[in-house]
Specification:
The complex is a heterodimer.
Chain A lengths: L4 H45 L6 H33 L3 H4 L5 H31 L10 H25 L5 H14 L14 H6 L4 H13 L8 H27 L2
Chain B lengths: L4 E10 L31 E11 L4 E5 L6 H8 L7 E6 L2 E2 L4 H7 E4 L11 H11 L4 H14 L15 H13 L5 E5 L7 H16 L3 E6 L2 H7 L2 E6 L2 E6 L1 H7 L4 E7 L7 H6 L3 E7 L2 E6 L2 H14 L4 E7 L3 H9 L5
The chains are: A mainly alpha, B alpha/beta.
């Protein structure tokens, strides 16, 4: 008798909870330090020095959350996967579990989603504390905030699955330099998409960047009074992006799992 | 009861490694045919299994013997659902590995070539979590894990981090992990590579006792002695093909032409060849550089003749080696090369 896939899925989750909870402080440090430092410079120092307007923090906070979320989700899935398939082969004990291989990939993506959400929810109060009172910040729709965080984290975990199985171990530095870094800079995290109307070509080009929709979505739910993309557009785009990344990621995962 | 494993015309072709070089016809533009149908790229593809037929009844200790690159690991990979065959079929406990890999995984335990424990977990957690991946509750797996650790001489290492275990201990932990869900069939891929002689002997004892309990064991090795001592039946494979299949004793009896005599001379051995060929007691002489190899039914009586021939040709022997009829000599006669 084969065990039910959900029972096996539960065991995979328990393993990740056991391992990740021990590593959580290091994980948070690794993934949120960069957005927090950005918050200190652009959300505290520059406004204090008068280089940027005080109102800037309202556009910055949701973006910083988006970056934390995206960066943490991608890393949580991609880094262990590159190592697992590349040299440690540790994932092989799970590939021997009596379930289809996609169950294992899906569990990794969901674990990455939860880690991404934890990173965002950790950065939110820290950033708010650093920036001080933020005009337009509105927690009235906290359910939507959670929903948007979930959508964004899932999209980037799925992206992590694709990256982690699609690239070789020696290319991991290249991955962060060529894919993740440009994504962060052109992800409308540090400026709202509407403001890019000042550079129309860039405004169109950045639409291929999934981070744009996470940043704008966070703006829609956290600072609804400030300019942002409409929520249905953001949600639709993130669902589409997640579906594409998931479909491609499951394929590359399967190729690595069964040669 | 279906055979423990059965393969029919099993073939595995790995695509050519992606080397971007200009071929003789210049750069290839346009769609590329499927690799297996593309005759022009066939030379660069890696043919790992070339029509392998195997059948192993339940309860047997079965060995796959062959040099590195013979296709042993690919065979194990197909049977353990980790490698997709290009063509042909493979079944484990009567279940087709391509059609129902999940049911196959339920019935097998796998010990990999290189220990790959979950390094984030302790030794016993490795076993308990692995059991959980098979739907086994903690209440069942905890005592079973401890019993396996005891049986494999790791009883006091349960709480150790995996990195604190020696190579041999890690390999035994892998065996415990492969057994935690009580599989019908145990696969071991070169389980003693990299172990010191003492750890190797200890592992042999473990494998023997597992076999005595009635478990089917499929093991690959390139150590003749290991195959000879442990296995009920052996398949000799090379270049993805089955060359011979029999009991170790049966295979040894098929080793042709008696004892292999190998002599290294202080110079080119070729001038000796005519004189050696004239000696009636010697068969299949071959010369490679300073090396002469030849078979004789009674090696002791044959050597003076070889030395006389050497003296006439002005050569002195630097080294003489005798290999009695064995899996080694059979292997050399089947493949034209040595195992290691």
């Amino acid at each position: 008798m084969n065990p039910s896939p959900w029972k096996v899925f539960g065991a995979l989750v328990r393993r990740d909870v056991h391992v990740v909870s021990r590593e959580l402080p290091f994980f948070l440090l690794r993934t949120t330090l960069q957005p927090i430092m950005f918050t200190i410079v652009f959300g505290y120092l520059l406004p204090k020095m008068g280089f940027v307007q005080r109102g800037y923090t309202g556009a910055l906070l949701p973006g910083v959350l988006g970056v934390s979320l995206a960066f943490a989700s991608v890393q949580a899935v991609a880094l262990p996967m590159v190592a697992d398939f590349g040299w440690t082969k540790e994932i092989e004990d799970r590939l021997l579990a009596p379930v289809p291989t996609w169950v294992i990939a899906l569990e990794k993506v969901l674990a990455g989603t939860v880690q991404g959400m934890i990173a965002a929810l950790f950065v939110l109060p820290v950033a708010r504390l650093i920036m001080g009172p933020i005009a337009g910040l509105d927690f009235a729709h906290f359910g939507l905030v959670i929903g948007m965080t979930l959508l964004g984290a899932f999209a980037f975990s799925a992206f992590g699955l694709l990256l982690g199985t699609g690239i070789k171990g020696e290319q991991i530095g290249l991955m962060f330099g060529l894919i993740v870094a440009p994504m962060i800079f052109f992800g409308c995290a540090y400026y709202p998409w509407k403001a890019l109307a000042a550079a129309p070509v860039v405004q169109v080009l950045v639409l291929v960047n999934p981070l744009v929709y996470v940043s704008e979505g966070m703006r829609a739910v956290l600072t609804p009074a400030l300019p942002h993309m409409s929520l249905p557009v953001v949600a639709g785009a993130l669902v589409l992006i997640s579906t594409i990344f998931m479909a491609l990621g499951l394929r590359t995962f399967d190729k690595r799992a069964v040669s | 009861m279906p055979p423990a494993i059965q393969t029919r015309a099993l073939r595995k072709v790995y695509p050519a490694p992606p080397v971007r070089k200009r071929g003789p016809q210049g750069p290839h533009i346009g769609p590329v045919n499927a690799p297996s149908q593309n005759a022009s790229s066939a030379g660069r593809e890696i043919l790992a299994l070339d029509g392998l037929d195997l059948e192993v009844p339940p309860g047997q200790f079965f060995g796959l013997l062959g040099p590195n690159g013979a296709g042993k690991t690919t065979t194990i990979g197909v049977l353990t659902t980790r490698v997709r065959p290009t063509s042909g079929s493979a079944a484990v406990a009567g279940i087709d590995v391509s059609a129902d890999p999940v049911s196959v995984k339920q019935r097998i335990g796998v010990v990999p070539q290189r220990p790959n424990p979950d390094r984030q977990l302790t030794a016993i957690q490795n076993l308990i979590f692995h059991a959980a991946y098979f739907g086994i509750s903690h209440a069942t797996s905890q005592p079973r894990a401890q019993a396996l650790l005891d049986q494999l001489g790791l009883g006091d290492r349960g709480e150790s981090k995996v990195d604190q275990l020696s190579g041999g201990q890690q390999q035994r932990l892998m065996i415990a992990r492969a057994l935690i869900h009580e599989p019908e069939i145990l696969f071991l891929d070169e389980p003693t590579v990299g172990l010191d002689p003492q750890a190797r002997l200890a592992l042999w004892e473990v494998l023997r006792s597992l076999h005595d309990q009635g478990r089917t064991i499929i093991m690959t090795t390139h150590y003749m002695e290991e195959a000879d001592r442990l296995c009920d039946r052996l398949a000799i494979v090379d270049r993805g093909k089955l060359l011979a299949l029999d009991t170790p004793a049966g295979l040894k009896a098929r080793a042709p032409g008696g004892t292999l005599i190998e002599v290294t001379f202080d110079g080119d051995a070729a001038p000796l060849l005519p004189a050696i060929q004239a000696l009636p007691a010697l068969t299949r002489p071959a010369v490679k550089g300073n090396e002469l190899s030849v078979y004789a039914e009674r090696a002791g009586e044959a050597i003076p003749g070889i030395l006389r021939a050497a003296e006439q040709a002005g050569r002195a022997p630097a080294d003489i080696r005798l290999t009695p009829p064995s899996l080694e000599t059979l292997f050399v006669s089947l493949t034209g090369r040595k195992l290691d």
